[in-house]
Amino acid sequence: MRHTHGSALVLATLAAAPLPAQSTGFWEPRPALAIARQEVGAALLGTRVYVTGGLGLGGIELSSVEAYDPATATWNRIADLPAALHHHGCAAWNGRLYTVGGYSGGFVPTASVRAYDAGTNQWVDLAPLPRARGALVAVEIGGKIYAVGGVAAGGVVVGELSAYDPTANRWTTLAPMPTPREHLAAAAIGGRLYVAGGRVGGRLLQQLEVYDPATNAWSTLPAMPTARGGTGAGVLRGRLIVVGGEGPGGNFPQAEEYDPLTNRWRALAPMSVPLHGIYPVALGEDLFVAGGGLVPGYGAATTVIALRYLPDGVTRIGLSTPLCNGPIEAYVARRPRSGEPLFALLQAPAAPPFSPGVLLAGARGSSAGTLVFQARIHVDLAFPVLPIPVNADANGAHRMPVSLAGVPAGTRVVFQYAWPAPPGCPGSGPLGASDALEVVVN
After folding, report:
1. How many other C-beta atoms can be found within 10 angstroms of the C-beta atom of residue 157?
2. What's the pLDDT score for residue 363?
3. Cα 420 from Cα 415, distance rounded (Å)
4. 46: which residues sit within 8 A by CB, 6+ positions away?
5. Going from the N-terminus, what domains does the chain have, and what CATH number goes with each?
6. Does a cis peptide bond (omega within 30 degrees of 0) precede residue 353?
7. How far, in Å, are 46, 114, 195, 241, 336 from residue 80 at the CA level?
8. Do 172 and 166 form a contact (C-beta atoms < 8 A)?
9. With bands split at pLDDT 50, 70 and 90, how would you rate the model's confidence at 379?
10. Is the distance from CB of 396 to CB of 341 less than 8 angstroms?
11. CB atoms within 10 A of CB 321
12. Are strands 74-77 and 65-69 parallel, antiparallel or unpaired?
């Protein structure tokens, strides 16, 4: 998506601080886990996200499993793993959830492979990995579970790739990764396995490599911009998204996206809470991250956050940064069709109190602007300007339907959020924040 910073927005009080041109998407908080955990395995089974095992507070090994139901926005405990497990692979296929390898009994690599059946709420043992390894990743492709990378006995970092056939209950050893690595990120796009980042011997990696099951061969692709380990990856809209991680200087907030069609990387919005030891899951249009370490090493969290894209056809054209709470950002949930309502979202990064604000919506033009809270929006006055009062909820978010009835397809609509500075916010002037988006109507 192309981002511009045009003249449609003029702020009378605050200096503009636009986002980088390549940045897109935003992070939302989601209901927290019941148990703090990091170095987890996670996967989408049916409509639910399952988070398995991991390390809890103080590094205690966990066997507990939690399942998130997006329909009710709640977490529930299900049957525990037969044994505590962390740094393992996790994938789902054909109604079953699989855990692959990992560490158990300390940092001892295990070859164990298990499957969970949601219908019976039971775990069963399956054929073990050809070699025990931890800090690996498991990915489902074409009905097979691929286990890649990790650490074997004696601390040997491997590039090993194995595929499990659930029908035959059998593993096959395949061509190894060109770059051995552990604490890596991996995901599948178009029937191919993409592997990014990781570490070996304390060295952080940025290599991106792809495996094609049809040829049993690996290829090297453009390196990820940020070298990191302890990271995780998922896929949205056919693009690989690598988020989080850890290094000697702390956790990485970076979220970076690789598009196989353009063979290029770009930056996305950084994580609102930088985490490592994660296993992201694609859930609809969200990249869902549950748990993780808040600091390098041990720092298990109950935190759950999700990355959402700015939809196609939506461009950020201005963002101010107040001195107190940070910017309150406006988003739309989808690109609207002519005559249909859309849902706008306002997300604040800090806790209330917030002063009530106003969301303005109008067709973009060059006429004299409408002034609200010292923020000016330039719109075509032939279309009505919608001023919508807004109050943020306890989480700093507010969703509302916005009617665009009568606006023809192709119209460029500007949405701008403005609010007065809250009491006790020195130096910010009368304007607390202002955010503007341009949306092209379908």
Report:
1. 21
2. 80
3. 17
4. 95, 118
5. 9-22+312-440 (2.60.40.10), 26-308 (2.120.10.80)
6. yes
7. 19, 12, 29, 30, 44
8. no
9. confident
10. no
11. 15
12. antiparallel
Q: CB count, 10 Å around CB of 89? A: 28
Q: 257 near 241, Cβ under 8 Å?
A: yes
pLDDT in tens, 138-188: 999 999 999 999 999 999 999 999 999 999 999 999 999 999 999 999 999
- Are residues 442 and 409 in contact, defined by beta-carbon separation less than 8 angstroms? yes
Smallest CA-to-CA distance from 130 within 113, 143, 115, 106 is with: 113
Asked if residue 78 lies in contact with residue 35, where contact means CB atoms within 8 angstroms, the answer is: no
Q: pTM surpassing 0.85? A: no
Answer for the pair 135, 183: CB distance below 8 angstroms, yes or no.
yes
Contacts 24+ apart (CB under 8 A), 98-101: 98/43, 98/126, 98/138, 98/145, 98/164, 99/41, 99/52, 99/53, 99/138, 100/41, 100/129, 100/136, 100/138, 100/145, 100/147, 100/164, 101/129, 101/132, 101/133, 101/134, 101/136, 101/138, 101/147, 101/150
Tokens read off for 438: 């341009």
Question: Of 205, 231, 221, whose CA–CA distance to 287 is shortest?
Answer: 231
C-beta of residue 254 within 8 angstroms of C-beta of residue 243:
yes
Structure tokens, 440 = 């092209």
Do 150 and 156 contact (CB within 8 A), yes or no?
no
Strands ordered across the beta sheet of 370-372: 9-11, 375-377, 370-372
**Is the alpha carbon torsion for 75, 80, 86, 87 positive or negative?**
negative
Contact 279, 86 (CB under 8 A): no
Per-residue pLDDT tens for 274-300?
999 999 999 987 899 999 999 999 999
Return the H-helix or E-strand segment holding 106.
none
Question: In which residue are the tokens 């859309």 written?
Answer: 342
- First-to-last CA distance in the chain? 16
Given this model, what pLDDT does residue 10 score?
Answer: 23
Residues 6, 26 contacting (CB under 8 angstroms): no
Cβ atoms of 404 and 410 within 8 Å: the answer is: no
**In the block, which residue shows the tokens 């692709």?**
221
- Tokens 């109604």 locate to 95
Mean pLDDT of 44-63: 97
